[in-house]
Amino acid sequence: MALIAGHVSAFTGSLAEAIENAMKAEWQQVKGVPMPDTNPDERRILFVAIAQGVLGYLNAHPDDVLNTIEVDTGAGTSDTVTIKSVDFDVTL
Fold first, then answer.
1. What Rg do the C-alpha atoms of the chain give, in angstroms?
2. To pair with 70 at 20 to 30 A between CA atoms, which of 7, 15, 20, 34?
């Protein structure tokens, strides 16, 4: 499954939509009222830009994100596995 940054015109299922949903939840928690829904496209431009920036950065620096994994062998011990490369499936 691709990591989808999103666009204002293609918002559903994207990181931008997840950011908007988190913003709505946090707004409700802090302010005690639903986030105003005035001019959602203006807000979504910001969320899309953030999502595209984050996923674009991760996609450009995959080896900086993850380089080792500790694996439980099931025998009370663990092994460390070195990751030589990571390929994020990113859709900007």
1. 18
2. 15
Model's pTM, two decimal places?
0.78
Token output for 57: 């950065």
- Half-sphere exposure of residue 75, counting CA atoms within 13 Å on the CB side? 2
Cα–Cα separations (whole angstroms), residue 25 to 11, 17, 61: 18, 12, 30
- CA torsion, points 81, 51, 18, 6, in degrees to nearest 10? -110
Structure token digits, residue 91: 């859709």
The length of the chain in residues reads 92
For residue range 26-59, list pLDDT tens digits in order: 999 999 999 999 999 999 999 999 999 999 999 9
Listed residue (50, 52, 47) closest to 35, CA to CA: 47
Q: Where are the alpha helices (DSSP H) in 1-92?
A: 15-31, 40-60, 62-65
**Into how many domains does the chain fold?**
1
